[in-house]
Amino acid sequence: MSSRENILAAVLKNQPPASPLPDIGFLKGNAVDVVAQYSGVFASIGGNVFLVKDLAAVDALIRENFDATKRIITTLPELGNSFELLSATADPHTFDDVEVAVIEAQLAVAENGAVWLPEQRMGQRIVPYICQHLVVVVAAETIVPTLHEAYGQIGLGQYGFGAFIGGPSKTADIEQALVMGAHGPITMTVLILDQVG
């Protein structure tokens, strides 16, 4: 056994006993009208939010608000007839000209306007960051009041990669100049789907 293996074996043997996690039930938020709370917070951080009834309304809204002559990709099979369906096996370098990416979030968080995007929903890790405009569809019933509740739902999941994304990319300097799209999408739009399916 090498020195490295001896050290690692000794560390493994000297693990402290597991202790129960603290009760954080008191940190739960108010679940009343989380859609309105989410919409207000998301708009305040520079995002656009719309309530939509179904995926046909999603299609129409995208065509109304974005240039449909440019490349629009989606991970939602239901929108595959209207837009380019993203292939998880495509070379990531081929996404450099994506104008709009349409992705479905697993959940959203009302207190900070973030959406949870695990890699399986992104299609490819690069997609929500390289596009000019990010559109995220989230079901209204998946909006939770706080990050604590979001972590309660996603904590036991198996993710190779995932991210909370909240609003369009932006940065500001000491001269108080706000730049949108500094290192990611210029705009982010969340479409809250009011109806399942």
Automatic annotation (TrEMBL):
Pfam family for this entry, one: LUD_dom
SUPFAM superfamilies on file: NagB/RpiA/CoA transferase-like
InterPro entries associated with the record: FTHF_cligase-like_sf, LUD_dom, NagB/RpiA_transferase-like
Domain LUD: 95-193
PANTHER family: LACTATE UTILIZATION PROTEIN C (PTHR43682)
Protein name: LUD domain-containing protein
